[in-house]
Structures are given as structure tokens and as C-alpha cells.
Amino acid sequence: MSESTKPLASYGTIRPGRIVAWTILFLGGIVMMTPLLFMFSTSLKSAGHVYDLRLIPDQPTLANYIKVLSDGRFARWFVNSTLIATIVTLSCLFFDSLVAYTLAKFEFPGRRVVFLAILSTLMIPTEMLVIPWYLMASKLGWIDSYWGIMFPGLVTAFGVFLMKQFFETVPNDFLEAARVDGLNEFAIWWKVALPLVTPALSALAIFTFLGNWTAFFWPLIVTTDQTLYTLPVGLSSFAVEQSIQWELIMTGAALATIPTLAIFLFFQRYIVRGVMLAGVKG
Amino acid sequence: MARIELEQIVKRFGSLTTVHGIDLTIEDGEFVVLVGPSGCGKSTTLRMIAGLEAISSGTLRIGGEVVNDHEPKHRNIAMVFQNYAIYPHLTVAQNIGFGLYTSRLSKAEKQARIRETARTLSLEPYLERRPAALSGGQRQRVAIGRAMVRDPVAFLFDEPLSNLDAQLRAQMRLEIKQLHQRLGSTIVFVTHDQVEAMSLADRIVVMREGRILQVGAPMELYNRPADIFTARFIGTPEMNMIDATIGDGRVDLGANAAAIDVSGLASLPGDLGAGRSVVLGVRPQELTLLNGEHRDFPIRIEGKVRVAEPHGSETFVLLDLPAGQIVARAPSTVSFKAGDPVFFGATAESLRIFDKQTEKLIG
Ligand SMILES: Nc1ncnc2c1ncn2[C@@H]1O[C@H](COP(=O)(O)OP(=O)(O)OP(=O)(O)O)[C@@H](O)[C@H]1O
Ligand SMILES: [Mg+2]
């Protein structure tokens, strides 16, 4: 096309608007990066130097990392968090999109009511839900179990909402063509509808995984057994054990960011590819 | 292959009835084309045959079996959609293979079938490509391939060519026709395009507002359209329509009496009651340019040239009559100037008389 061969109008010239925008983005970036940088910085300091607020540590040391990684509890919490976040994410991807697909593509009495009911739970903050969850968990004997930590997040209203919006953009012809070709409804969802919404699935996977990886309040409440702690709960228990050991907390936190980065980098590809796929439709 | 029988098929959407009791039998191996204006229920009818839309009342038989309550997958029908509905996330081979989803063939046999289908449709070089890297015509062929790859009892096409440009459409039309001749399959084809309908169909079904107006072979519809709607719909340019009234045994053309001479008409078909308002129909192709030498036509029309439209092999001339206008075909060797008076003649057989009220053919 001639479009792409034309030189970009703004190429080579820097407009004042750009400078303002970049400055704002740059400042925003600094504000967001600073705590992260201090986290890494502190994790490289020895206990005595924690309150020395220099960004580049005076005498950098890996001692904290060795200490944290050789402490069996940290490894356990890491595994707990990974396991829980992974299972909850998979569950959300599956159930949220199944519910969303049904709401988006099938006509049945009460469809709107069901959808509104699901949406309305989005308006209730977690803090208010914790008490009923806790009562439920204690009555059912789920306190101090993986299941207890996971059950509130296995299906989410947010995921249903997000996926429904995307399923609505899938042309009905795609589904009907599959129906005529003899696929059953589940196969149509799995083989046709889901692949067409991979960008949304990737976004949901990232949100859900991060949300569960960093979840603190509910796991703290529902667990008393140290071996069931998730990483955030475990790290905070570090903090209050004797005196607050900031260097160890920061080391744990630094280690905890690794999987989130990995998840993001992994799914990001699908988001980009999915966006390109969406352009082909029809 | 199978015959498809529709008996008093009705479709209601809530309180709205969009298909009003259709009776139609599609013979085994027949190519039937549904035509009609937008919203007349063509797609709805097709979708009821496919099983994508529930039948509100009536009976649908495929191969003699009542299938009203069968799911699409139990009807073994293949359907090609207007916007192809091929999957962007799958390759051409996988898309075609989708048609074999329920088949029990071995993997190798499936592969062979896919190759064979691709060869038939000249898609072999593209088997590993994704739809994004195909042209519109190639995408449409993939969609047809997916329908062809299994042996369906019938093919349903819902305006499959309407997204293609004119040239490609003509080419695909030929390909579909050849495909039908080769496979001998039962085909129900929906289109807006009367040229498509004429050139493809064994029989054309003209629909309007959820009812069938006329069913017949293309030339039957062309020569004896049952009503004004069909007469206008089939054939390009449209059939000319001239208002008239019947006055004791002859046609009274009112304001056009001076321009149209029908005195040569021997007689009118029997029982056209006097005083009845009628519409006379003549196709532009059935008018003959009269110059100098006076040939003997029972009907002669005089008009003033408004515009002439050369089509290469022929020229269509729009003529002003005292009341209204008509289009006539003339040889391309003649040139016309706006405002020139010209004469055209027509035979008695080319004249069709419709009742103005009921719009039905009466003579
Ligand atoms: N799901 C539906 N709910 C209500 N009305 C519908 C529905 N689907 C179709 N209709 C109506 O049924 C009528 C026939 O529609 P249909 O799609 O069969 O027309 P069509 O002949 O295929 O038209 P086109 O040539 O524009 O495709 C239309 O008036 C349409 O508005
Ligand atoms: Mg239609």
C-alpha cells in the first residue's frame, strides 16, 4: 500500500507536545521504578547498612540471597505461591471464559439477570467478602488448606466480564460454520471461539496470576500454618519475627518478582499476536 | 445426495413471522437458487434447512426423513457463508480439514482427502498458509473446500460471492457451476444477483416477504414471469413497464397513445374485462430498432432519446415517452444523439400483460 511507503509526517521533527508527553512519562517511570530499585538495592546491603539510603550499596553482598534461598521456608512459600497462582489462573481461564461464552453467545431466559448478578459482585470490595468467605471456610473445614486459599478466586466476575466482551466480537458465522461441520458445543468453544480470543485470555492470565501472586489479605486470614503461607504472607512474617529484617524482606520480594516478569514476558507475545489475528477476521 | 422437501415451513421470531409457509421440493442433484430482495427470508429458509434456525412449523425432509428436530451435525449438510467463516488461526489445510471433524477416516486418509479437495480448487500451493495471506477468491475457495471435503447430502450457499469483485465473482460462478456438474450434488444457493441466479440455477425460486412468488427454470422465469416483481427482478436491464387500461378488446394507452401504436395487435387474450387497469411489460432486448425501411411489427413505439449507454456489443437507449420512459436495446453500430426521435418495434409475443392491482400475469 502507498500508506506504508509514505514517510511519517512527524519523522525527524520533534513537536513540543511530544517533549511534554515524554517528560511526563519519564517522571512517571522514575516514580514507579524507584521503589523497585530500592528493593534491589536493599537486598544487596548487609543488615547494618539498610538505613544507609544510597541507591548503589557501599559494600554489595549476596549474603541475603544465600540466606533467604537456603532457608527452607522461603522455598516452600515460593512453591505454595506458584502452585496457588497457577491453579487459580488456569481455573479462571477455563471457567470465566466458559461462563462468558455462554452469556455472550446463547439466548436463554434470565441471561441478563445472571450477567448483572455476576457484574454486581464486582462492586463489593474484598474486605467485605472476607468475613463470609471465612465463615464458609471454617464451617466447611477449609481453613489452613490450599483449597481454602484458592476457592474465592477460582471463578471471577472480572474475568467473566472481560471475556464476554471479547466473545461478543467473535462473528456468529464462525460458530455456525463449526456447528454445521458437526462439532458439539463444547468443541466449538474450545476449538473455534477460544483461539479467537487469545489476546483476552493472555491479558486475563496476566491479571489473574499477578493478582494471586501478590494477594495478601485473604491468604493471611485463612492460614495459620506456616508451611501453607504464600510468599507475601511469609515475607511479612519475616518482618515481625525478631526485629524487622528489611534486607531479607527485600531479598524475598526481589526473588518474588522473577515469576511475574516471566509470566508477563511469556503471555505478552500472545497479546501482540492476538491483536494481529483479530485484524484478519471476516 | 438427497432430495430436500419443505412443506408449509414457517419461521416466527417472537410475534414476527418472517417465513410464511413455504412449499418447495429440491430434487436430488438439483441446483436451486433462492432470489429475492433483502429481508425476504432467503437466509432464514437456508438456515432452517441447515438446522441453525429452529423451524416454527411445517415439515422438513431430507432424503425422505423428517429432520425438523435434528441438530445440524446430524443432517450432514455443508454450508458456505457469505463472509467465508474460515478460521484465521488455522492454516488452509486445517480449515479444509475442519469439514472432516466428525469423520472416522484415518489421519492419512484425511490428509489425502484434504489434498484432493485442495487440488480440485487449485489451493494446493497454499495449504500451509493462513487465511490472512490469501486473496478473497482463495478464501472463498477454502470455505467451499471445507464444505466439499466430506460428502454432504447437500450444499447450502448463502450469498457466497457477494464479497468478491465483479470479475472474480464471474470466475467463481463458473467454478461453482463446474463443481456442481462434476459432483452432481444437491445445491441450494442464495443470492441477490439475478445474473448469478440465471446462470447457475436449474430452477430459480423467487421470494418476497417470506413467500414464494414463482418457481421455475431460468428461461421460464425470463419468458413468462408470473408477476411484475419477478418480471422486474429477472433480466437486465429491467423489463419496461407501461401503464394502460383495457377498453373493449383493445389496449388504451392514455397519454402514451400517440407514441405507442398497438393497432397491429390482432387481438387481446380472451377475458380481459373492459376498464381493467393493466401494466404492459416488454423487455429492452425484445425491442427492435426501426430505421428508414419499415419492418412489420404489430407494436411500434416512438420516443426521444434521453441517453444512450453503449455496452460494447450492444447499446441501451433510454427513451422519453409522453408518460414515463423505456429502455431499448439497439445495435452498437448505431449512434444516438439526445433529443433524436427514434422508432422501435416489438412482436405480439413479447408483450406481457399484468393486472395493475394484483400484479399477476394475465396475458
Ligand atoms: N434472529 C432474528 N430475530 C428477529 N428477526 C429476524 C432474525 N433473523 C432474521 N430476522 C428477520 O427475518 C427477515 C428475513 O431475514 P433473512 O436474513 O432471511 O433475509 P434475507 O432474505 O436473507 O435478506 P438478505 O438478502 O439481506 O440477506 C428479516 O426481516 C429479518 O429482519
Ligand atoms: Mg441473507
Can you walk me through this structure?
The complex is a heterodimer of chains A (282) and B (363). Chain A is 71% helix and 0% strand. Chain A is mainly α. In chain A, helix 2 packs across helix 14 (246-278), helix 4 runs antiparallel to helix 11 and helix 5 (111-120) crosses helix 8. Chain A is globular and about 70 Å long. Chain A contains 14 helices and no strands. Chain B folds into two domains: 4-233, P-loop containing nucleotide triphosphate hydrolases (Rossmann fold, 3-Layer(aba) Sandwich), CATH 3.40.50.300; 240-362, Nucleic acid-binding proteins (OB fold (Dihydrolipoamide Acetyltransferase, E2P), Beta Barrel). Chain B has eight helices and 20 strands. Chain A binds chain B through residues 171, 173-174, 176-184, 187, 192, 195-196, 198, 277, 279-282, and chain B through 47, 50-52, 71-73, 77-79, 81-89, 98-99, 101-102, 130-132, 143, 146. The complex binds adenosine-5'-triphosphate (ATP) and magnesium ion. Adenosine-5'-triphosphate binds next to strand 2 and helix 1 of chain B. Adenosine-5'-triphosphate binds at residues 13, 16, 18, 36, 38-44, 192 of chain B.
What does this entry show, briefly?
The complex is a heterodimer of chains A (282) and B (363). Chain A is an all-alpha fold.
CATH architecture of the largest domain in chain A: Orthogonal Bundle
Strand content of chain B: 25-35%
Number of strands of chain A: 0
What is the class of the largest domain in chain B in the CATH system? Alpha Beta
Report the average pLDDT across residues of chain A: 85
Q: Name the ligand types.
A: adenosine-5'-triphosphate, magnesium ion
Number of domains of chain B: 2
- Could you give me the name of the CATH homologous superfamily of the largest domain in chain A? MetI-like
Q: Please provide the ordered H/E string of secondary-structure elements of chain A.
A: HHHHHHHHHHHHHH
DSSP strand count of chain B: 20
